[in-house]
Amino acid sequence: MPPRLVLASNNRGKLAELQAMLVPLGIELVAQGELGIGEAEEPHRTFVENALAKARHAARESGLPALADDAGLCVDAFGGLPGVDTAYYATQFGYPKGDDHNVRALLEQMQGVDNRRAALVSTLVALRSADDPEPLIAVGRAVGEITRQPVGEHGFGFDPVMYIPAFGKTFAQLPPEVKNANSHRGLAARQMVALMKERWA
């Protein structure tokens, strides 16, 4: 098992969530920015292709095994969009990039839309090296409904508008440890930990 793994992201929220989930493996997760590695291109239309591109870039530049996450919101009423464009969603409607603007743009676009079903999707890809022919791939989905206004103080991204029927709350209303255990990223990370134990031990 690699003691150090480079995370192909500089998102502090993702780093903290994933770091906590990899504790059982004794792996130290290092953000690529700490190693002076810039962001990879993400030209693809699927989460798995973008995550793979990010992981390959980070592994090649660092010489370390790499973990990448590509995640987004898939809204049923929009045919699965914004999908891979989730981070830049607000910019399509003239807002600056950012979580709060994304939430605002989404609620505006969904005014008058009755089908509120959506899924937060996280695809994790791990590579032993840039040329690893057998990437580990784990996908987590958290299915819920988009609320009509933000509720809750925790989390980041779309958490305040992602209502999870099983809890009767939005992700932003759940304590972080409960959210992390049941989020798209939490589900994907648990699968990834199992895959790493099985394949990389």
TrEMBL record:
Enzyme Commission number(s) from the entry: 3.6.1.66
Coiled-coil regions listed in the entry: none
Catalytic residue list: D70
MF annotations from Gene Ontology: dITP diphosphatase activity; ITP diphosphatase activity; metal ion binding; nucleotide binding; ribonucleoside triphosphate phosphatase activity; XTP diphosphatase activity
Single biological process term from Gene Ontology: nucleotide metabolic process
GO CC aspect terms: cytosol
Keywords, alphabetical: Hydrolase, Magnesium, Metal-binding, Nucleotide metabolism, Nucleotide-binding
Sequence similarity: Belongs to the HAM1 NTPase family.
Subunit structure: Homodimer.
Protein name: dITP/XTP pyrophosphatase
Organism annotation: Ramlibacter aurantiacus
